[in-house]
């Protein structure tokens, strides 16, 4: 929460002055709570710090882009940055999980083929029906 507060205060103080604390404090509390909840539920415990760090970095990046470059209002830029940062990290995490699952299955299949030979890979599974492929040939 403190990191989000410091970031938001630094981002908003140049244009809003002392009124930046009125926006920074509630948003930093909500962002810190959401960040810790998503970090602890989306990844294994040994990857929580990596996930949370990437998430924070993306929220900071998107907030700077929306507030400084695009010149969106402060509250809206924080909300958009939160959705964008959290969304990108969640999607990236899900994609990585699926890639590693696919890789693990691919390695298991190749090991099975090496142990039992290539003929077991082409045999149909029980309960599956193979149908001949019919091609239309035009002269």
Question: Short description, anyone?
Answer:
The chain is mainly α and about 140 residues long. Helix content is about 75%, strand content about 0%.
How does the SSE layout of this entry go?
Layout: H1 2-16, H2 20-42, H3 48-69, H4 74-116
Low-confidence stretches: none
Oligomer: single chain
Query: N-to-C terminal Cα separation, in Å?
Result: 72 Å
Encode the helix/strand succession as letters: HHHH
Q: What is the overall pLDDT average?
A: 84
Characterization of the model:
Residues 113-139 are annotated as: Disordered. There is one protein chain. The chain has helices at 2-16, 20-42, 48-69, 74-116. By secondary structure, the protein is mainly alpha-helical. The protein has one domain. The radius of gyration is 25 Å and the shape is elongated. The mean pLDDT is 84.
Label this structure with key terms:
139 residues, mainly alpha, 4 helices, elongated
């Amino acid at each position: 929460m403190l990191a989000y507060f410091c970031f938001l205060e630094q981002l908003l103080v140049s244009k809003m002055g002392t009124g930046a604390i009125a926006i920074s404090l509630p948003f930093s509390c909500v962002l810190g709570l959401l960040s810790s909840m998503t970090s602890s539920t989306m990844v294994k415990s040994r990857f929580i710090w990596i996930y949370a760090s990437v998430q924070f970095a993306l929220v900071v990046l998107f907030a700077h882009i929306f507030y400084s470059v695009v010149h969106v209002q402060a509250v809206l830029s924080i909300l958009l940055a939160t959705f964008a940062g959290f969304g990108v990290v969640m999607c990236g995490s899900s994609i990585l999980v699926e890639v590693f699952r696919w890789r693990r299955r691919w390695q298991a299949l190749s090991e099975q083929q090496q142990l039992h030979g290539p003929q077991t890979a082409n045999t149909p599974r029980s309960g599956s029906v193979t149908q001949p492929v019919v091609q239309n040939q035009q002269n």
